Amino acid sequence: xxxxxxxxxxxxxxxxxxxxxxxxxxxxxxxxxxxxxxxxxxxxxxxxxxxxxxxxxxxxxxxxxxxxxxxxxxxxxxxxxxxxxxxxxxxxxxxxxxxxxxxxxxxxxxxxxxxxxxxxxxxxxxxxxxxxxxxxxxxxxxxxxxxxxxxxxxxxxxxxxxxxxxxxxxxxxxxxxxxxxxxxxxxxxxxxxxxxxxxxxxxxxxxxxxxxxxxxxxxxxxxxxxxxxxxxxxxxxxxxxxxxxxxxxxxxxxxxxxxxxxxxxxxxxxxxxxxxxxxxxxxxxx
Length: 286
Hints:
The chain is mainly alpha-helical. The protein has helices at 4-26, 41-48, 59-81, 87-92, 110-126, 129-153, 159-196, 199-222, 228-252, 260-285. It is flat, with a radius of gyration of 31 Å. The N and C termini lie far apart (114 Å).
């Protein structure tokens, strides 16, 4: 009667509600005779009524667990409405004809990039606005790329034709846009690193990064045949390393930068004022 997906997510929903109820009870007021809320009837009523007729202890955790239960229940109802995409159920609505089989989708690395962007976004919420912006840009780009991949993978029954269709549509957009975004993110992360380390270390890091990029480009140019997956893997590792270093540097903060010109200017002003004082003393003696 109920599909496997419905039973799974409805189980999550029941688990979320029970956990939210217990969490609302045990995180109540721990002082006095009503320790942990186990003998406080108001706490039990509040947790059972979603806070309508009493307190629920820690509001943040309680709301998160309740929302988890609500989302799980919504997914369970949706899966029941679509019968978990079961072919037998679909054929009953289509005069007994089975739907065409879907071809396997192509490999996609954008979910991993999206996870990296989500982590960067969360870190940026509590550290620096620039990190938050980088994470937001990565998430928006990932959502757009996944949307186009989902469309192209099911455009036809031929995977090669689907790949050609996607490349013909997306390459004129991906190359300039992703190149610009990648350069901007790289410059931002490198600037955070240079402003965090000392002046001498900033010079050495710039030299090392330039040497690595140059030697890598020379190696790829001299190689007769390079696997595309190897190139993508090396670039992905470098991008993750640079982004991680930039985030860590932004969290640490900028180093103290002394302004020498300002101090020299003030010293000159002091000498000038001392000269004026001696000049005025000479005039008073006269």
